[in-house]
Specification:
This protein starts with a helix and ends in a 6-residue tail after the last strand. It has a single domain, classed as Fumarylacetoacetase-like, C-terminal domain (Fumarylacetoacetate hydrolase, domain 2, Alpha-Beta Complex). The protein has 273 residues and is α+β, with helices and mostly antiparallel strands. The protein is globular.
């Protein structure tokens, strides 16, 4: 545990000082189980600093990415309230997204997401779909703390799956137990576009997420159960990147659009502090 605590400290300092580090696995033996313990130690430090856990994010939900990394299962990371992009609609914004300062990040990227919101606590994999009370299109801001975005599987897991930020569009209500709203939306094959400054740069289908984003939700419940962690009411689940991530630059305006779900916007500040 002492060594794992030291690795968590290395990653925390990399994040706080905006200084990339070499792969942990270059110098330390680290398996997947140990990497998840390092990840949780890092989250514990953030919570001790006043942050609050608000959900989870899924990674390696693309078959191509799994093949590239030589794995056959998804990974996950933990989201805190400090990662929410200020002003984004689904994260409590009312006046539209405010400029997002990139200065606290090392080499940020953005990717389109489907986001689930849980209306009740989920303690196992049974009926996790019925716990969802809303779905939205969104995005995740990624920022590996490793030099050149190069890492092994244990490295990226320890680094909280490169989580840095997230934004959510308007929530679309879905059927929940005891509170029917609308039929559960079919989001298995929706066209998605990621545009930068009004120009489409990535297009894909939500089918890129394990064939259907609902499969990613089930995987999240499975991993949470294995980790002994309940998914709490009000938490969100980012289902996984739909396209390859795009680098973020000061002044960029990023729009993610998904058919029937609307859009989510990210406006990067023109300068960094």
């Amino acid at each position: 545990m002492g060594n794992e605590a030291g690795l968590a400290d290395i990653l925390q300092q990399a994040r706080l000082t905006r200084t990339a580090v070499g792969k942990l696995t270059d110098d330390y033996p680290l398996d997947l189980a140990g990497a998840y313990r390092v990840q949780r130690l890092g989250i514990d430090r953030r919570v001790a600093d006043g942050e609050r856990i608000v959900g989870v994010k899924m990674g390696f939900t693309s078959k191509a990415k799994m093949a590239q990394m030589g794995v056959d299962d998804v990974i996950w990371g933990i989201l805190t309230d400090a990662m929410a992009v200020p002003g984004a609609a689904g994260t409590g914004g009312t006046a539209g997204p405010r400029p997002y300062d990139l200065s606290g990040l090392i080499h940020p990227k953005v990717e389109p997401e489907i986001v689930f919101r849980l209306g009740r606590r989920v303690e196992n994999t049974d009926g996790v779909e019925s716990a969802v009370d809303a779905v939205a299109v969104g995005y995740e801001v990624l920022d590996s703390r490793f030099e050149g975005y190069k890492f092994t599987l244990p490295d990226v897991v320890a680094d909280n799956a490169s989580a840095a930020g997230f934004g959510i569009g308007e929530w679309q209500a879905v059927t929940t137990q005891g509170a029917p709203a609308a039929p559960r939306p079919d989001i298995s094959d929706l066209p998605v576009t990621l545009a930068v400054d009004g120009q489409p740069v990535r297009t894909a289908s939500t089918a890129a997420i394990l064939g259907d984003p609902w499969e990613s939700l089930r995987a999240a419940a499975r991993l949470a159960t294995q980790a002994g962690l309940a998914l709490e009411a009000g938490w969100i689940v980012l289902a996984g990147g739909i396209t390859e991530a795009v680098p973020l630059t000061p002044g960029a305006v990023v729009t993610v659009t998904a058919k029937t779900l609307g859009a989510a916007e990210l406006r990067c500040a023109t300068t960094t502090r």
